[in-house]
Amino acid sequence: MINSVNFIHKDHQYKSVFFETFGCQMNKLDAELSLGLLQEEGYRIVDKVDEADVILFNTCSVRQHAEDKVYSHLGALKILKKNHPDVIVGVLGCMAQKDGEAIFKRMPHVDLVCGTRMFSQLPELLLKIRNHGSHVLAIDENQIVNVKRVVTYRPNIYQAFVTVMRGCDNFCSYCIVPYVRGREISRTIADIKEEAQALVLNGCKEITLLGQNINSYGKGLDGNITLGDLLSELNDLAGLERIRFVTSHPADMSRDLIRTMCRLEKVCEHLHMPAQSGSDDVLKKMRRGYTAGYYREFVRYARELIPHLTVASDFIVGFPGETEEDFQETVRLMEDIRFQNCFIFKYSPRTGTKAAELKDDVPDEAKRARNIKLLELQKHISLEENKKIVGKEVQVFVEGASKSDPNRLSGRTRQNHIVVFNGSQELVGKLVGVVIHEVTDLTLFGKLTSCL
Ligand code: 5AD
Ligand code: SF4
Predict the structure, then answer these.
(1) Ligand 1 atom having least distance to the Cα of 348
(2) Taking the mean position of all CA atoms in its chain, how far away is CA 125?
(3) Ligand 2 lined by 168 (C-beta under 6 Å)
(4) Which fold, 159-387?
(5) From the CB of 172, is ligand 2 less than 6 Å away?
(6) Parallel, antiparallel, or unpaired: how do β-strands 165-166 and 54-59 relate?
(7) Could you tell me the CA-to-CA distances from 421 to 90, 157, 436 in Å, in that order?
(8) What CATH code would you report for 393-451?
(9) Residue 118's CB: how many other CB atoms inside 10 A?
(10) Residues lining ligand 1, judged by CB closer than 6 Å?
(11) What is the pLDDT of residues 251-289, one digit of tens each?
(12) pLDDT (tens digit, 9 = 90+) per residue, 204-222?
């Protein structure tokens, strides 16, 4: 295992990198930070594996399916690697941390396994492979991620994600994250503010703060710091228009934070606060630390203070022992809360977690049927909620050309609705008013009214 890497000369021969990311937003940001470091070293990003000298996968372990996908991508590189042995193949992130050495055994053509806390050393690790050969394992759990962000390497000039804390101490019984991402570590407000300021000076108007369990932000820092304190500080940054934060845990969410959101004009009226289940029995087995009643009451309080608040959630169906009655409780929660949108997952046992000791006894067919039922219900609710916006004017931050129709623009409301409308490219990065005249469950369509 490599604890510290220190090389003096730089590699000038191997300079093109293909990078693919799986999983959550934090993985996407880690990929962006890694690519920033590599570009500083002179690497060119390519979008085809057969044009790359270095092929890297930033991986996810949250469900088996995500891992299977990476192993199948790696398997497909066997022939390429045989024909071009100098190409470096690397596995980064959660799966690298979890499977470690076993990846080399299963996929001997992989050269690098780099865990969740060592990607800032990528340039040196790649150089080590070039100079000393393959099978470099870098999964030290005691490293603290500390990346000097190169703010100029960003896929979107007007928007940025900023990691404010890493890791999770919650140990929900189904979740692998605390094992692969380690204990919670918060960055200082000064550090985050410096990064945010640099981003704003570089043109950024909207920042989304990232943390696996963002409501725990500040734990371990000197002076009782909370997420509310961080939001207050960032709200003062001139030039920044909007602030978002993900992911909220219902048990760690405080009423105080809702009051702070209410007070700060740049903080958007949206929460991603996964409920996971509507059954108290299942929530208990999941070790979530709240009941469905508590969740309902919290959302009621939050909406009382922030009337236009939208709430998004994740749900897991088919957790061990989940009965039809438990599932109906989830349906009821979904109907009561009327989420803006939901991600629904079939339970996937993760070795090493507490839930993996329970029998995975809900048949896959039932998992699939429950998944479809929730997706359909949510689609129906989203459409009904979106219809209520027809005829109203919303404030939109223009993100770029619409993916489905490049002749139109796409942006988001403060409540995180996607809005598509006609307008010129100069509006990208600006706040505009749009009157909504048509909706689907996922998108609002409207007409530009003003530049705000
Ligand atoms: N099986 C299925 N879904 C899971 N999630 C986390 N762990 C598992 C698992 N073992 C889901 C949760 C979480 C989201 C990121 O992934 O809903 O909120
Ligand atoms: Fe996983 Fe629970 Fe931590 Fe979220 S809060 S990352 S679900 S352990």
Answers:
(1) 1
(2) 25
(3) yes
(4) pyruvate-formate lyase- activating enzyme (3.80.30)
(5) yes
(6) unpaired
(7) 41, 21, 9
(8) 2.40.50.140
(9) 25
(10) 62-63, 174-175, 274, 276, 314, 316, 345, 347-348, 350
(11) 999 999 999 999 999 999 999 999 999 999 999 999 999
(12) 999 999 999 999 999 999 9
CB contact at 8 A, 345 and 64: no
pLDDT value of residue 452: 67
Query: Environment class of residue 60 by beta-carbon count within 10 Å: exposed (0-12), middle (13-18) or buried (19+)?
Result: buried
Average pLDDT rounded to a whole number, residues 63-90: 96
List, by residue range, all CATH 3.40.50.12160 domains of the chain. Answer: 15-138
263 secondary structure, DSSP code? H
Which residue from 213, 285, 350 has its CB within 8 A of the most atoms of ligand 2, so it is best to mutate?
Answer: 213
Instruction: Return contacts of 379-386, CB within 8 angstroms, 24+ apart.
Output: 379/441, 380/441, 381/334, 381/335, 381/338, 381/339, 382/339, 382/340, 382/341, 382/441, 382/442, 383/439, 383/440, 383/441, 384/338, 385/338, 385/340, 386/417, 386/439, 386/440, 386/441, 386/444
Question: Could you say which DSSP state residue 155 is in?
Answer: S
From first CA to last CA, the distance across the chain in angstroms is: 54
Fold of 15-138: Rossmann fold (3.40.50)
Does 212 contact ligand 2 (Cβ within 6 A)? yes
Beta-carbon contacts of residue 297 (< 8 Å; ≥ 6 apart): none
Q: Would the pTM count as exceeding 0.90?
A: yes
Report, as an integer, the average pLDDT of 339-366.
98
Position 47: which residue type? D
